Amino acid sequence: MSPNKLHFLLIPHIGPGHTIPMIDMAKLLAKQPNVTVTIATTPLNATRYGATLTGPIESGLPVRFLELPFPTAEAGLPEGCSESVKNAIEKVMDDGIEGNERRKRAKELGKIANGAIKEGGSSHLNLTLLIQDIMHYTKTSS
C-alpha cells in the first residue's frame, strides 16, 4: 500500500510581492515526503519567475507552474494589457532613484522572509506543523 500523497495547489496574487514568497513556500512544501505542489500563475509570471524553480525541478523537487491565461476580457480590460502592465512595472523599477529605493527595500524584506522560511524560522515551523496535521488527518480518515 502506497503512502498518502498530498497535492497542494497554490494560487498567489499575481504581484511579485506575493508570487516570490509563494514560490519559496512551494519549495518548502515540496521538500516534504509525499507532497507535490502546483503554483497557478499567468504565462507572464511563469516566464518571469520560472528560473527560480529550474534548479529545484531539475533536482527532482515535485513542484511546477500551471499557466493560466489572464482573463483580460472577463475583467473588462483591453486585450494585451498584460504587456502594458509589464512595461509599467519595468518603468517603475528602472535605474532611477525610486527604482533603486524599491529594490533596496525588496532586498531587506527578502532577507527577513528568507530567515522566516529557513529551518527553525517561524514560517518554517508553522508550515511543518501544518503538513504534519494534514498528514495525520489523511491517515486517520482513510
Listing every helix as H and every strand as E from the N terminus to the C terminus, the arrangement reads EHEHHEHHH
Uncertain segments of ≥5 residues (pLDDT<50)? none
Number of strands: 3
The 3D shape can be described as globular
Strand order of the largest sheet: 1-2-3
Alpha plus pi helix count: 6
Mean model confidence by pLDDT:
80
The radius of gyration is 18 Å
The termini sit apart by 12 Å
Q: Describe the biggest sheet?
A: 3 strands, parallel
* Class per helix and strand makeup: mainly alpha
Strand content: 5-15%
What level of helicity do the residues show?
55-70%
Give your account of this protein's structure:
The protein is mostly helical and 142 residues long. Helices cover 58% and strands 12% of the residues. The chain is built from 6 helices and 3 strands; from the N terminus they run βαβααβααα. The protein has helices at 16-30, 43-49, 51-58, 81-92, 97-117, 122-141; strands at 6-10, 35-41, 63-67. A 3-stranded parallel β-sheet has the order 1-2-3. Helix 1 (16-30) links the parallel strand 1 and strand 2 (35-41). The longest helix is centred in the C-terminal third of the chain and has 21 residues, at 97-117. The protein is globular and about 55 Å long. The chain starts with 5 loop residues before the first strand and ends with a helix. The model has no long low-confidence stretch (mean pLDDT 80).
